[in-house]
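User: Predict Zf-HC2 domain-containing protein's structure from this.
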Amino acid sequence: MTPPHPERPDVPDGPRAPGEPAAPDGSDGPGDPHTPGGRSASAVPGGRVPPAPQEPAGAKGRGAAEHRALKSLLGAWALTACAPQEAAAVEEHLGECDDCAQEALRLRDAVGLLHRPDSLDLDPGLRARVLDSCLERRPPRVPVPEWAAPYDAETARLDALLQDIGDGEWHAPVRLRWFTDEGAVSRRTTVAGVIAHLLSVDGLVAVALGLEDPLGDLGARSGRFSPPERTEAYWRALYFPPTRSVRAPWREQSRALVRTASLGGADTADLSVSYGDFEIPLPDAGLDRAFECWVHAEDIARAVDYPYEPPAPRHLHEMIDLAARMLPLVLAARRRAGLAPPARHLVAAGEPGRSLRLEIEGQGGGQWLLPLDSPGAVGSAEHEVAHVALDGLEFCRLAAGHLAPHEAAAGQLGDREAIRDVLYATASMSRL
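Assistant:
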């Protein structure tokens, strides 16, 4: 018995003999003039019926309609735009049909040509924008304290930079610069050495939060080491020059600092951090570490020829505000050391006295009235004797020791001696 036609069960699958009449129901058999080929058996020389077009090998065992449907999905499959069920059906079909498998390979190659090899370097501000958007939709369960946000952002940005550099670039030379009583000084190290420096000084905050000191027993024996002394001790204790392996403990420590401060809530803001000869509140120490992380990230970026953007304006403003609040204390310390003229007047704490207006322009800017005669005095517009205007980034580079006081392009008005004292006090806040 002849098997039924795969598409029409009432039509036999074998060819009819020459001259055999068409099916009684008028269906388009091989002799029908309305066949797809448009020719009857009598129109073919010799009376032979031409063979029907052969479906591809993959169509055997499947309906021709199913084969055509799966073939039509090859373009979407190459673009990974198929539904999971469709993709599974196409891939099963490719294992059976050589023609479709070759076509799928060509389409996948073409899709690869559509994608340009764009740079994988991300916009440094992308993380902050994504986080801002996420936090607007759903606040975190354990919010990061406001004072820790700049440190969290700057360590994340530096870590992204470190992730992009190659093994050899970890040994690229970096020159650290700062300003002392004798003038500008510098120290040569490597990219890995800079991260080791950040790790050791961030350890001061770690100890204040009850975390492990990265210097270990050396930190316990060091007592009240200042930040530069901690760095020198840590560098000397290393058996070999630092390598990229220093990145992991530095990043883990920075995350632990933010995590511990977040879980501690408002109580952590009352802690103090020892810097050797003095102590500062933990929120100010967090801003100080964020500032130094940014400054040294720029040092590293310059060494490996990599672009690096300034901090977010709100974080930059907080860093500038910390420096402005510290300036009266630094100026008083310089006077005690004989590096600045003595105060002209004795002003009691909380009383208004001679003041200098510090105006910071650009991103993160603002205005501060700095008391000149006593750190405990109150800045007063009525007692303003000088006015200094600086760009925000230039002020930060002056505070980092990357710019000499006499090189600062400052707009100056009023008492020249007071202006000079404040500019030199700003530069002397820098350190290794």
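The two ends are 97 Å apart (CA to CA).
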